[in-house]
Automatic annotation (TrEMBL):
One of its GO terms (cellular component) is periplasmic space. This is Serine protease DegQ. Keywords: Hydrolase, Protease. One of its GO terms (biological process) is protein quality control for misfolded or incompletely synthesized proteins. The keyword Hydrolase applies. It comes from Thiocapsa rosea. It comes from the Bacteria. GO terms for molecular function: serine-type endopeptidase activity. It holds the Pfam family Trypsin_2. The keyword Hydrolase applies. Transmembrane segments: none annotated. InterPro entries: Peptidase_S1_PA, Peptidase_S1C.
Length: 287
């Protein structure tokens, strides 16, 4: 199983031995707005269904995506971590090989520089608050947030809740509509959901699927508690991005995936939005 949520790009090191690590943490969720029937007079199932595209006349999620994607951001993180002690460095024969050709061996305590990418959600545009994954920001020395319109801001970390893998960043106020956190307790297996993020650093990408399970536990050593499982495609770089329902509400924060090599096999996980809301409130109270 692969548990991490960021796509880690090739990195520059101070040592001469390269150690690669591909980590992926991400996931998804979905629900129909409980107020939809009351506000429109139509059954919620109809209100939540994909709208007819004005050009083709076929069902399309495009109107919903035009409304929600401006509040989904790409996050780039530079970090410094101690270089991993590769087993070869403990091998006397390998040490002699390096000495024979005059090659320097990394010394203990050397620092490795990494650059990772992930995703985030604008939850308060007026105050510039962005929600993302805590693990994405580990050992960060610089954090940058890029909006869909390509504006880029240096971000400040306000706080985090490791138990739910949620962190809050601050950027300057922006003129976009923030995403609303929905009620993840209303999710059921079979609900349609949409994952939005920045897989492999390609840029904003939308995938869809269903809720495969709710209350899934035992993921990442169970340190993240109960999660939403989805088959919406989640890949490294989706970490911190939203899992939304067909009402445009965030029902999960993509945080983990299971795959043989860090890629999607239809099993992704998200932190339920109700837990993310509690984490947001705790971070804001602790300021």
């Amino acid at each position: 199983m692969n548990c991490s949520t960021a796509a880690t790009a090739p990195r520059r090191r101070t040592g001469s031995i390269a150690a690669s690590a591909l980590v992926a943490l991400l996931a998804t969720g979905c629900a129909i707005s409980p107020t939809a029937e009351r506000e429109t007079g139509l059954p919620a199932a109809i209100v939540g269904a994909p709208a007819l595209g004005t050009a083709s006349g076929f069902p399309s999620l495009a109107p919903l995506m035009r409304r929600v994607t401006p509040a989904v951001v790409n996050i780039s993180v530079k970090s410094e971590v101690p270089m991993e002690d590769h087993p070869f460095l403990r091998d006397p024969e390998f040490r002699r090989f390096l000495d024979r050709f005059g090659l320097p061996a990394p010394e203990e305590g050397e620092i490795e520089q990494r650059q990772s990418v992930g995703s985030g959600i604008i939850v308060d545009a007026a105050r510039g608050y962005v929600m993302t994954n805590d693990h994405l920001l580990r050992n960060a020395t610089e954090i940058r947030v890029t909006l869909k319109d390509r504006r880029t801001f240096r971000a400040r970390r306000l706080g985090s809740d490791a138990a739910s893998d949620v962190a809050i960043l601050e950027i300057p106020p922006v003129d976009v509509r923030a995403l609303k956190l929905g009620d993840s307790n209303r999710l059921e297996v079979g609900d349609f959901v949409i994952a939005i993020g920045n897989p492999f650093g390609l840029g904003q990408t939308v995938t869809s699927g269903i809720v495969s399970a709710v209350g899934r536990s035992g993921i990442a050593g169970n340190r993240l508690g109960e999660l939403i499982q989805t088959d919406a495609s989640i890949n490294p770089g989706n970490s911190g991005g939203p899992l939304i329902n067909l009402a445009g509400e965030v029902v999960g924060i993509n945080t983990a995936l299971i795959g043989p090599s860090g890629g999607n096999v239809g099993i992704g996980f998200a932190v339920p939005s109700n837990r993310a809301r509690v984490a947001l409130d705790n971070v804001m109270r602790g300021r």
